[in-house]
Automatic annotation (TrEMBL):
Residues 5-318 form the FAD dependent oxidoreductase domain. It comes from Collichthys lucidus. The keyword Flavoprotein applies. Transmembrane segments: none annotated. It comes from the Eukaryota. PANTHER family: D-AMINO ACID OXIDASE, D-ASPARTATE OXIDASE. It catalyses: D-aspartate + O2 + H2O = oxaloacetate + H2O2 + NH4(+); D-glutamate + O2 + H2O = 2-oxoglutarate + H2O2 + NH4(+). This is D-aspartate oxidase. SUPFAM superfamilies: FAD-linked reductases, C-terminal domain (SSF54373), Nucleotide-binding domain (SSF51971). It holds the Pfam family DAO. Gene3D superfamilies: D-Amino Acid Oxidase, subunit A, domain 2 (3.30.9.10), NAD(P)-binding Rossmann-like Domain (3.40.50.720). Its EC number is 1.4.3.1. Keywords: FAD, Flavoprotein, Oxidoreductase, Peroxisome. D-dopa binds at Y223, R278, G308.
Length: 338
């Protein structure tokens, strides 16, 4: 019998991953995935989905390495299985190039990706504005395929899905024993966290099937990511910019910057343009608290604020959130679990 009621708020890559981890690991819990937007309408759906991350300042690097590696290993198994095309997960090789040698020449995730090395002088000749680079094989996880695939896995594990918007956690406190908050930028209003803010990103999908290797400028503003059906080119990182409409000035700038790195893009065709708001925060919030709501104290597990690295860290932080849910269960009085 299912006797503990858990609700996961948010159906982007963080919420769906977290819901799957809980539903599969804790079969005695009844798990509901509740969100106002599902795939294909979440921020996660438009992400390039490359597994790559910058370091958060205040989280022990060992924990960040685990988040990266747990996600990498989980997605690598999918990329190397018959599920790869349906789940939209594939291996992706290429270069990250720098105009100046970065302070940390080797990123913290270098051991987690495949075949990480510094680029040779010969390879760098292709990029005359750049003087240093990384060559490696990582993964690309296309959420417009991955999220429906993962939602299906959630349903198979007995999970329930509900589409609606909530204005406060209080609306859930009578119906659920544990609330897991994966609402991304929505946490600003849902739990009043002003530390989470938007970083606007615009990308284009292009038809250029001859491109097979990714190229990313180390400043994170210009990148070319070949995918399963098109090439994602970008981008922008505009802090505190809430505009969701396509900016044609950004489109021109993206095409100009990317064509400088890969001149053959001039022969590609723009298929679509997209804007998303990264749910950015100085550090992601992956922690639990006991919240006093009118008439009831409720366990809340937070998992949001992954900025530009949500796809990269989704499975790893979902496993941490699962661990926090287990802790909540241990702290609950026995009758609450009946
Ligand atoms: C242009 C661009 C490119 C990117 N490329 C990459 C990349 O290559 N690699 C990478 O790792 N990351 C990338 N990212 C970052 C990535 O998209 C985010 O980190 C990730 O999508 C965050 O996932 P999330 O589930 O927290 O948020 P979201 O996908 O925004 O989901 C939030 C969910 O919460 C729900 N919600 C919010 N408030 C409420 C409420 N009050 N009631 C009910 N439901 C609510 C929403 O409906 C939604 O379902 C990119 C982002 C952008 C914009
Ligand atoms: O930075 C990148 O290479 C892609 C990405 O994660 C983003 O645009 O947020």
């Amino acid at each position: 019998m299912k006797n503990v009621r858990v609700v996961v708020v948010g159906a982007g890559v963080i919420g769906v991953s977290t819901a799957v981890c809980i539903a599969e690991a804790l079969p005695f819990c009844s798990v509901t995935l509740l969100a106002d937007k599902f795939s294909p309408d979440t921020t996660s759906d438009g992400a390039a989905g490359i597994l790559f991350a910058a370091k958060f300042p205040d989280i022990p690097v060992e924990r960040q390495k685990r988040w990266f590696k747990d996600t990498f290993d989980h997605l690598l198994a999918i990329a190397q299985s018959q599920h790869s095309p349906e789940a939209g997960v594939m291996l992706s090789s290429g270069w990250q190039i720098f105009k100046e040698v970065p302070a940390e020449r080797k990123p913290f995730w270098a051991e987690s990706v495949i075949g990480f090395r510094f680029m040779t002088e010969e390879e760098l000749k292709r990029f005359p504005d750049h003087k240093f680079g990384h060559a490696f094989t990582t993964l690309k996880c296309e959420c417009s395929s991955y999220l429906p695939w993962l939602e299906n896995r959630f349903r198979k594990a007995g999970g329930h899905v509900e589409q609606r918007s909530i204005n406060s956690l209080q609306e859930l406190s009578n119906s659920y024993d544990i609330i897991v908050n994966c609402s991304g930028l929505g946490s600003r209003t849902l739990v009043g966290d002003n530390q989470v803010y938007p970083v606007r990103g615009q990308v284009l999908k292009m038809e250029a099937p001859w491109l097979q290797h990714f190229i990313r400028d180390g400043d994170g503003k210009t990148y070319i990511y070949p995918g399963m059906h098109s090439v994602t080119v970008g981008g922008t990182r505009q802090e505190e910019d809430w505009r969701l409409d396509v900016d044609e000035g950004d489109t021109d700038s993206i095409l100009k910057r990317c064509s400088r790195l890969e001149p053959s893009l001039g022969h590609g065709k723009v298929l679509s343009k997209w804007v998303g708001l990264r749910p950015s925060r100085r550090n992601p919030r992956v922690e639990k608290e006991l919240v006093q709501l009118p008439g009831r104290r409720v366990h809340v597990v937070h998992n949001y604020g992954h900025g530009g690295w949500g796809v990269t860290l989704a499975w790893g932080t979902a496993l941490d959130a699962l661990g926090l849910v287990r802790q909540c269960l241990q702290e609950m009085p026995p009758q609450a679990k009946l």
